[in-house]
């Protein structure tokens, strides 16, 4: 009984208090790595995207996501039952009047879809209109996120691969590497395709450096992510995978080790390659390590968590450069490699570096194939539709002026302008 009460208290602390730090940290990171004349817009965009996603998910998406063991739409094919979609009632029917565990599942998934909606905002920095990104967030919360969440966390067919086909324990995703991070990273990739590069980014095939305006904000966001991410990983493991209270310290240790190894790998690599450490790439490495931990926190030893994180930190440095210079994808804060590619690596590392029953690697590969073969095309179609309904990109004048002035009518740092005007008058 004591363990049950302690577990419940820990879950409540994680979901009610700590996990909300993740969207806050990501918002600060995005704002810091963007331009100063769009920083207020970046923060407001995060607030609006998170709010839109949470509302739409509660009213529409949670029904499709379903609860583990709850009602579901099941297809019977080839003698196998495939749970494809939740079948719960629409609207906020699980909350204050629901059970403790179902209420926490709802809240955790609300926060998860908010995080997934915030991730691609950095890719659309300086050019993605506020109304358009809210529409994109709504579609993610209504379709993409709940469908994948049911398959992975709601007892759907990916989670059932172990029981149905003897593939290890089925597809495993303890802290949302697939359901949250990969969904956000895939959306970032599609947004980069839809929006195109910022003005002045590419000239005659060469990429111009457009550094973030405030590395302090970005690095503070990284620190703010730590307690929230530990809570996110632990809440997912406790709610969806039956982890006990005794697993909490190990989850926290592996989360911190993965992030630390990734950050140190990034800072060391940039020091060697560029003669000085790069703050923005180190921040990217730190977050990539956290993303990897969402898939590996329950199944790797501390040593293997360090290995997985360090490899993520190295990969991010090279991938940011490759996407920018070779593929001409303008991704200001590196959301595609940090959240998308690192999530895929984490899902693989969970099987490659951990101790699993036979077939676990294949289960993880099937999950990754689903991300690339189903979630990516679905996200592309939804963003294409949204872009037709509400054009994503501001016009040339708006981009030159900056999103703060063009869409909000005021800048985040008006004193800079005031001081400049006073200097000119003198």
Give the topology, please.
Blueprint: H1 2-18, H2 21-33, H3 39-65, E1 72-77, E2 80-86, H4 100-118, H5 130-152, H6 161-165, H7 177-195, E3 202-203, E4 206-207, H8 215-240, H9 248-274, H10 279-296, H11 302-326, H12 335-352, H13 360-389, H14 396-401, H15 403-408, H16 414-425
Antiparallel strand pairs: 1-2, 3-4
Helix pairs in contact: 1-8, 2-3, 2-4, 2-8, 3-4, 3-5, 4-5, 4-7, 4-8, 5-7, 5-13, 7-12, 7-13, 8-9, 8-10, 9-10, 9-11, 10-11, 10-12, 11-12, 12-13
Low-confidence stretches: 418-426
- Please tally the β strands and state the result: 4
**What's the CATH H-level superfamily name?**
Ammonium transporter AmtB like domains
Helix tally? Answer: 16
For the largest beta-sheet, the strand count, sense and barrel status come to: 2 strands, antiparallel
Please state the structural category.
mainly alpha
What is the radius of gyration computed over CA atoms, rounded to a whole number of angstroms?
A: 21 Å
CATH topology: Ammonium transporter fold
Shape: globular
Order of strands, widest sheet: 1-2
Helix and strand run: HHHEEHHHHEEHHHHHHHHH
Mean pLDDT: 93
Domain unit count = 1
* Fraction of residues in H or I helices: 55-70%
- The fraction of residues in strands falls at under 5%
**CATH architecture assignment name:** Orthogonal Bundle
CATH class call: Mainly Alpha
């Amino acid at each position: 009984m004591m363990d049950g009460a302690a577990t419940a208290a820990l879950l409540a602390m994680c979901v009610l208090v700590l996990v909300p730090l993740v969207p806050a940290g990501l918002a600060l990171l995005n704002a810091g790595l963007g331009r100063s004349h769009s920083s207020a817009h970046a923060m407001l965009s995060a607030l609006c995207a998170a709010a839109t996603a949470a509302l739409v998910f509660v009213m529409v998406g949670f029904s499709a996501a379903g609860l583990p063991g709850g009602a579901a739409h099941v297809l019977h094919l080839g003698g196998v039952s495939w749970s494809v979609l939740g079948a719960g009632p629409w609207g906020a029917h699980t909350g204050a009047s629901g059970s403790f565990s179902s209420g926490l599942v709802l809240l955790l998934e609300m926060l998860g879809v908010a995080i997934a909606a915030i991730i691609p905002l950095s890719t659309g920095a300086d050019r993605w209109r506020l109304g358009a990104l809210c529409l994109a967030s709504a579609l993610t919360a209504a379709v993409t996120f709940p469908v994948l969440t049911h398959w992975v966390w709601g007892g759907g067919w990916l989670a059932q691969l172990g029981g149905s086909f003897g593939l290890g324990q089925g597809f495993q995703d303890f802290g949302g590497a697939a359901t949250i991070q990969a969904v956000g990273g895939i959306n970032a990739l599609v947004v980069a395709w839809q929006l195109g590069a910022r003005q002045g980014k590419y000239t005659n095939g060469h990429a111009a450096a457009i550094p973030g305006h405030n590395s302090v904000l970005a690095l503070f966001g990284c620190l703010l992510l730590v307690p929230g991410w530990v809570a996110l990983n632990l809440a997912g493991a406790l709610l969806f995978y039956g982890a006990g209270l005794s697993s909490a310290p190990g989850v926290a240790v592996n989360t911190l080790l993965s992030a630390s190894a990734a950050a140190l790998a990034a800072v060391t690599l940039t020091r060697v390659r560029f003669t000085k450490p790069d703050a923005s790439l180190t921040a990217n490495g730190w977050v990539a390590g956290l993303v990897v931990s969402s898939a590996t926190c329950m199944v790797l030893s501390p040593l293997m968590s360090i290995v997985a994180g360090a490899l993520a930190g190295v990969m991010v440095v090279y991938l940011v450069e490759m996407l920018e210079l070779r593929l001409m994808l303008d991704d200001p804060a590196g959301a595609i490699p940090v959240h998308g590619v690192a999530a895929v690596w984490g899902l693989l590392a969970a099987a490659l570096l951990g101790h699993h029953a036979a077939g676990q690697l294949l289960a993880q590969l099937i999950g990754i194939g689903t991300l690339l073969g189903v979630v990516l095309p679905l996200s592309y179609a939804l963003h294409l539709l949204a872009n037709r309904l509400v054009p994503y990109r501001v016009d040339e004048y708006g981009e030159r002026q900056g999103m703060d002035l063009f869409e909000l009518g005021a800048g985040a740092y008006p004193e800079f302008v005031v001081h400049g005007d006073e200097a000119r008058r003198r």
